[in-house]
């Protein structure tokens, strides 16, 4: 199946007389005739369901679709994108370990790694998103266990050189984890460029309607844990909390990561996505390929309009010729990047306020990647915990406006932006 068909039909194939749409299995628990049947599930000797905190059929159908979309071997849903990134990292990093991460990442993820995971004894080195091979290699330590970055960073809109990051990660025997929320697999499939694990905030384009918070983790099935067994004891030595199972042995490269993440982290931390939300997510996925195309058309038209306007100081949009990331976007995002454009007005923060207030289509929201256009000044909202220096490092200077172009009519959007820019100039 091509990706457009996977969006519509992937993951769930009903049998004769079964529901056409993915059924919502609104049940916390599952019935068995004999204890030994359930015992086999607990021993991971049979697959099936016993308690929705670990697994639920609705979630599994939708996770299977996302795995197919990314070209992976296994996937799981989480309650949010935050949970997905935390689980993906914590599944292979413990106290005393170290992560190499691009500094241009989502504010919530930055905080997760820089503050919360640090408190758990996991250290991090943030590298410039444009780091050279030499600079990247210099960031690794003996105890490095993962490399992390975002295909298109939210909100900095930098484009990750996935091949380079993967090369450096693999040279040090660790996997590359890529948050692919902004391009979605419709525009980029990081596994094709060497990434090992992909994460998503499905809250964004995948749901796409501002209806359900959620996350996903996908495994490429290609990282050879056993070849680096000393680094990954959690995958390569017996799990005493699970009857001594050795995940990498029992489930192989294809299944070890997601199985461990489900049986340990989901069991103990419980950040499951509700089956209702998984159903809504699947409705979003059915039109993902159509919407993403439209978001990108609007994004490009708006970026072109802004870059030709005299009130605008600069525009960041990697699909725009002349953008610093245009060469990387040509390589990794040839079909388009996303609907999010960021820019700075000549009048600075004050002009940004007037501009945002004057927009009629765009609501001021912390959200992005929604069918409806929305906008935000990250420095005064999502990134307000960062210092000025961290803001610059994260690529979100104080005056930056992030405009998430929806799927409304292009001319309506541009007319709205034009009138708001007029108000800034007349201030
Ligand atoms: C929003 C976002 C997250 C966090 O996801 P939630 O679903 O809000 O928890 C992580 N990464 C990126 C790139 C995001 O845009």
Summary keywords:
binds pyridoxal-5'-phosphate; alpha/beta; 40% helix; 427 residues
Q: Would you give an account of this structure?
A:
The chain has 427 residues and is an alpha/beta fold. The protein is 40% helix and 13% strand. The chain has 17 helices and twelve strands. A seven-stranded mixed sheet has the order 1-7-6-5-4-2-3, sandwiched between helices. The protein has a five-stranded mixed sheet with strand order 8-9-12-11-10. β5, α8 and β6 (197-201) form a beta-alpha-beta unit. It starts with a helix and ends with a helix. The model has no long low-confidence stretch (mean pLDDT 95). The site of pyridoxal-5'-phosphate has 16 residues, from α4 and α5.
């Amino acid at each position: 199946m091509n990706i457009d068909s996977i969006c519509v039909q992937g993951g769930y194939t009903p049998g004769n007389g079964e529901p056409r749409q993915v059924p919502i299995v609104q049940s916390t628990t599952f019935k068995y005739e004999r204890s030994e049947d359930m015992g086999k599930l607990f021993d991971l000797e049979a697959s099936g369901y016993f308690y929705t905190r670990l697994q639920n059929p609705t979630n599994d159908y939708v996770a299977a679709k996302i795995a197919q979309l990314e070209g992976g071997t296994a996937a799981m849903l989480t309650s949010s994108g935050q949970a997905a990134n935390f689980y993906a990292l914590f599944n292979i990093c413990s106290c005393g370990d170290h992560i190499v991460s691009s500094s241009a990442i989502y504010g919530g993820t930055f905080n997760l790694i820089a503050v919360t995971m640090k408190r758990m004894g996991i250290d991090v080195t943030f590298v410039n998103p444009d780091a050279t091979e030499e600079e990247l290699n210099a960031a690794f330590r003996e105890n490095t266990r993962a490399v992390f970055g975002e295909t298109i960073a939210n909100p900095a809109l930098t484009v990750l050189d996935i091949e380079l990051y993967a090369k450096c990660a693999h040279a040090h025997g660790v996997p590359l984890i890529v948050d692919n929320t902004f391009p979605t697999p419709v525009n980029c499939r990081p596994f094709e460029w060497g990434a090992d694990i992909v994460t998503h905030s499905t809250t964004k384009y995948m749901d796409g309607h501002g209806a359900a918070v959620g996350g996903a983790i996908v495994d490429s099935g290609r990282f050879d844990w056993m070849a680096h067994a000393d680094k990954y004891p959690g995958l390569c030595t017996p799990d005493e909390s699970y009857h001594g199972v050795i995940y990498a042995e029992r489930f192989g490269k294809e299944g070890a990561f997601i199985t461990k993440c489900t049986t340990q982290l989901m069991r103990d931390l419980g950040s499951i996505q509700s089956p209702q939300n998984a159903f809504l997510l699947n409705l979003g996925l059915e039109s993902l390929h159509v919407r993403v195309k439209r978001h990108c058309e609007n994004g490009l038209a708006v970026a072109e309009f802004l870059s030709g306007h005299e009130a605008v100081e600069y525009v960041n949009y990697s699909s725009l010729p002349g953008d610093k990331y245009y060469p990387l976007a040509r390589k990794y995002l040839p079909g388009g990047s996303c609907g999010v454009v960021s820019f700075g007005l000549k009048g600075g923060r004050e002009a940004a306020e007037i501009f945002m207030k004057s927009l009629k289509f765009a609501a001021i929201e912390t959200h992005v990647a929604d069918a409806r256009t929305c906008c935000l000044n990250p420095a005064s909202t999502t990134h307000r915990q960062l210092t000025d220096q961290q803001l610059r490092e994260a690529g979100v200077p104080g005056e930056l406006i992030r405009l998430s172009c929806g799927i409304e009519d292009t001319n309506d959007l541009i007319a709205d932006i034009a009138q708001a820019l007029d108000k800034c100039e007349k201030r």
